[in-house]
Prior knowledge:
By secondary structure, this protein is α/β, with parallel strands linked by helices. It has 2 domains: about 1-160, Rossmann fold; about 170-250, 2-Layer Sandwich (Alpha-Beta Plaits). The protein is about 30% helix and about 20% strand. It is built from 10 helices and 9 strands. The chain has helices at about 10-20, 25-30, 55-60, 85-95, 115-125, 130-140, 150-160, 185-190, 215, 240-250, and strands at about 1-5, 20-25, 35-45, 65-75, 100-105, 175, 195-200, 200-205, 225. A 5-stranded parallel beta sheet has the order 2-1-3-4-5, sandwiched between helices. Strands 6-9 form a two-stranded antiparallel ribbon. The chain starts with a strand and ends with a helix. The chain binds flavin mononucleotide.
Amino acid sequence: MIIFYFTSTGNSLAVAKRIGGEMISIPQVIDSTKKVYKDDVIGVVFPIYSLAAPKIVCQFLSKVKFEADYTFAIGTYGNMPGAAMHYVQKLAEKQGYRFDYVNHLFMLDNFLPVFEIGAEIEKLPKKKVEEMTAKIVTDINGRKHLKAPVTLGAKALTSIIDPLTSNTAKSAQKYIVNDQCTKCGVCVKVCPTKNISVTSKVQFSDRCTGCEACLHHCPQNAIHLKNEKSNKRWRNPDVSLNEIITANNRN
Ligand SMILES: Cc1cc2nc3c(=O)[nH]c(=O)nc-3n(C[C@H](O)[C@H](O)[C@H](O)COP(=O)(O)O)c2cc1C
């Protein structure tokens, strides 16, 4: 089994690890020319951004084809999944295959302009993350088939967003690096789009995908958004900083 994953704060990687198999980070293969992946089971796990799959995930799914006896796609989300998973199935169809099992999983919301991490942590017991993760693992082990859970309203909302063309570069200008920064370079290593460089200061280029990994994993908590709800940050407790670096470092 191969699982392709994308993660910023570890939620999606924690789920991918629970499912098991060979783990391949999408940022590590996004520049590859390989078009067809073959295995007995192939899955993809990623966070939902703006009611859709992140741009890097859409780019990946738009250029590869999975040839497997069983395929699945799981989107982790924190508040509202929209029709993200329905459109991910459409991307697969365009490539000539279909995901057999498509589901989403309610987890902590790491989007700092809207959600306060302390309050999000308190919501976790109600989200029943462990129970729902275990159910998805059982479903996949049992090779269950499931259509993307979606309502008409969600389709209407999500259809406004096109992650392949939406411009997230402006968000880079919102980052404030304070004088706690030691120029350790962790932000460079956790960025999945090679958007950050550190010289005499931290510099952001125009490839930001808005994942907020640089904010969440800064060891000094030195990177901030003007409009963040609080300065509290999140890394899924089942995932280490080294695993995030291994997943996202493209330098
Ligand atoms: C830029 C951005 C946009 C997001 N948009 C949504 C959204 O539309 N709906 C939602 O429920 N959660 C949204 N989230 C929350 C994430 O999907 C959620 O926290 C996810 O589990 C994070 O996964 P990760 O830890 O693997 O990165 C968003 C997060 C970010 C950073």
